[in-house]
Specification:
Helix 4 runs parallel beside helix 5 and helix 8 packs across helix 10. Strand 5, helix 5 and strand 6 form a beta-alpha-beta unit. The strands form 4 sheets. This protein has a 7-stranded parallel beta sheet with strand order 3-2-1-4-5-6-11, with helices on both faces. The protein has a 3-stranded mixed beta sheet with strand order 12-9-14. With 301 residues, the chain is an alpha/beta fold. The mean pLDDT is 92. It contains 10 helices and 14 strands. It is globular, with a radius of gyration of 19 Å. The chain has a domain of 205 residues: NAD(P)-binding Rossmann-like Domain (Rossmann fold, 3-Layer(aba) Sandwich). The longest helix is centred in the first third of the chain and has 18 residues. Its EC number is 1.1.1.133.
């Protein structure tokens, strides 16, 4: 099978890709920003450095899945140079360090679109409203303006972190509900989430099949609000929602700017790949299955 380099391997998506691709016969090399990670063929590497030759010579990849990113919106706003270096300019360095035989799959984001774009298509104009979104736009620019074999994947993921010290959106909902803490979920933010496990299946398809070098939106196929997502997940797990309420993102002036409509249209990808992306029911079912497998979330009723 192919030799593959996965960046951001200490993060939620990257660590899951390492596990899944390794289990499917790929020769996986992994890199991340954490120094001590229990992953075979792992190399700590600072993507803010000037030259990636050492990383590429070490891994000698046929495919690179570039997951590495600073995703905290407030951190990006406070550290714009670091955000642009890691999230965007890193693509230029990957291209410079590899030859044309290496396929590059770049994980981008819905945050390249403004709030007034509903079910954004790949042809819609992008206008990021945050440093995070702008940093991803730069990465897309560097890749689109090459003659390389590439895929830019705009997505919105949900999942569980392998590192118990890291808390993502799903873990925050679960812990808040289980501990009966009062928490508000945005009823005015819409998205089309896909789980990290379902996205991994699509990335494996892209890594092993030839599609035109394009931007593809790979998310869930249906829309829901952040509140509706949390309610559906907790209902499926049988966890009471007595302390979970509807909230509005407009109340949080200190947050980095984030689009209230994060929905993406998946029609182009489904047409080109002949694959069917998960609906909300499938997304929730997948999450429930993974949560129930995790001893950390053994629900006591």
């Amino acid at each position: 099978m192919k030799r593959i380099l996965i960046t951001g391997a200490s993060g939620m998506l990257g660590s899951t890709l390492v596990e899944i691709f390794s289990g499917c016969g790929f020769t996986v090399y992994a890199t991340g920003a954490d120094k001590e990670v229990d992953i075979p063929n792992y190399k700590f590497y600072n993507l803010a450095c000037e030259d990636y030759s050492e990383l590429i010579n070490w891994s000698n990849p046929e495919v690179i899945i570039h997951c590495a990113a600073i995703i905290n919106g407030n951190y990006c706003s406070e550290h714009p140079k670091e955000a642009f270096d890691i999230n965007g300019i890193s693509l230029k360095k990957i291209v410079e360090a590899t030859d044309n035989s290496v396929k590059i799959i770049y994980i981008s984001t819905d945050a390249v679109f403004p709030s007034d774009t509903h079910l954004a298509t790949e042809e819609d104009s992008i206008l990021p409203e945050s440093i995070y979104g702008k940093s991803k736009e730069i990465g897309e620019f560097f890749l689109r303006n090459t003659d390389r074999d590439y895929t830019i994947v705009r997505t919105t993921i949900v999942g569980l972190n392998k590192d118990s010290a890291k808390i993502g959106f799903v873990e925050w909902i679960l812990q808040s509900a289980i501990q009966k803490e009062e928490v508000g979920l945005f009823d005015d933010v819409l998205f089309t989430p896909i789980t990290i496990w379902n996205l991994a299946e699509e990335l494996m398809f892209l890594a092993t099949n030839s599609l035109p070098s394009k931007i593809y939106h790979i998310t869930g196929s249906e829309i829901l609000s952040k509140y509706e997502f949390g309610k559906s997940l907790l209902d499926a797990l049988g966890i009471p929602m007595e302390n979970i309420a509807k909230d509005s993102i407009l109340r949080f002036d200190d947050r980095a700017k984030r689009s209230t409509d994060q929905t993406l249209s998946v029609n182009l990808y489904q047409e080109h790949s002949k694959r069917v992306l998960p609906n909300n029911e499938k997304t929730i079912q997948t999450l429930v299955s993974k949560i129930q497998e995790n001893e950390k979330y053994q629900i006591r009723k």
